[in-house]
DNA sequence: GTCTATATCATGATAGAC
DNA sequence: GTCTATCATGATATAGAC
């Protein structure tokens, strides 16, 4: 798959921004990593912020695309839905372990140009699905649908974003941190299913 | 409490770094916010990194000081320990909601000068306490002590650091996000106590 | 200890040749 | 579309007067 110049720029920018954040990356670095001339960056994008926005929008989609699909399904029971959502998060996190920390970190810094972006709209779509799909399961108490979702996401995502800190604290050094993360998958399923039974 | 020049610099730097990250802050900003002359910054600290390191060390201490104390206690039972630890995290997070995201984000970027810092040592201290104190409770399965600790931290901390994203997704708009966070406190206690019973 | 002045370099962005 | 050259600015850091 031969990438066009614009794609090359976005791809290089993606990996750089994800690693160092918006203000930690220079146009020169994006130019070097993508192999594209510095002038070209400004031919395709009017500014550094514009490149960042392009990256950020695609990254948000990666974060939510699998999960939305599962939330929408009505042909499976509660326990299966839990399993599939955890699988979906793990699939995303295994492919893109640094992605959630990047998104959350940048989102907390962006104040000025939040309104310029379509980010909130992309997110808001998930909001209805939560209420509609989780609310009707008897095992979830009235109004606890959102708690449930947050619990699931917290238990899956946090150990990934806190890896740099937790792998230092981890007691059993014979087991690698990625093995530990993998072992958590069934652990999380058990906890959630028991907690809501 | 009159602050010395060095403290003024660190205090201003703390709030700026926490908000915008290492590379998002300039020496000029620290100078302006602290009211200290730009030249003075270099009189007290040899570089921007040195200021950052001073801030980072104090911030790590804030994150762990309360929790370590509770882990060390042997005069209380399992359920009480859960409650106190959640209270300790909530106390810390309410005072410093942006602190964990800042620490984790910077920690994931720091590669080069990790070894120069004492950060890992500060963290490693918590490691022993986990095994020694949680391992002897019968309710925790063999080897699940670390899982338990990660669950507790994930459920407490993640909703704070993901606030910019989750408050957009949140379905019940009548309830504020901080009210939701507060209501989670008892929710988390219930889940953890039930899950390990 | 505090300040001004300045050195040195890197930054994002533009203009214009090809 | 692609490239070079350059601008204007802002960055960290230093030297030295007071």
Structure description:
Two copies of one chain form a homodimer. The first copy, chain A, has 197 residues and is mainly alpha-helical. Chain A folds into two domains: 5-58, Arc Repressor Mutant, subunit A (Orthogonal Bundle), CATH 1.10.10.60; 64-195, Tetracycline Repressor, domain 2. The first copy, chain A, is built from ten helices and no strands. In chain A, helix 8 runs antiparallel to helix 10 (177-195). The longest helix of chain A is centred in the first third of the chain and has 25 residues, at 48-72. The radius of gyration of chain A is 19 Å and the shape is globular. At the A-B interface, helix 6, helix 7, helix 8, helix 9 and helix 10 of A face helix 6, helix 7, helix 8, helix 9 and helix 10 of B. The structure holds a DNA duplex (18 and 18 nucleotides).
Helical content band of chain A = over 70%
Q: What is the strand content of chain A?
A: under 5%
Number of DSSP strands of chain A? 0
Counting copies of identical and different chains, the oligomeric state is homodimer
**What is the overall silhouette of chain A?**
globular
Task: Output the helix-strand order of chain A.
Answer: HHHHHHHHHH
User: For the CA atoms, what is the radius of gyration of chain A?
Assistant: 19 Å
How many domains make up the 3D coordinates of chain A?
2
Highlighted features:
Arc Repressor Mutant, subunit A, DNA-binding, globular, Tetracycline Repressor, domain 2, homodimer
Task: Spell out the blueprint of helices and strands.
2 copies of one chain form a homodimer.
Chain A: H1 5-20, H2 27-34, H3 38-44, H4 48-72, H5 78-95, H6 99-109, H7 119-134, H8 145-161, H9 163-169, H10 177-195
Helix pairs in contact in A: 1-2, 1-4, 4-5, 4-7, 5-8, 5-10, 8-10
Chain A binds a DNA duplex (18 and 18 nucleotides) through residues 5, 26-28, 36-44, 46-48.
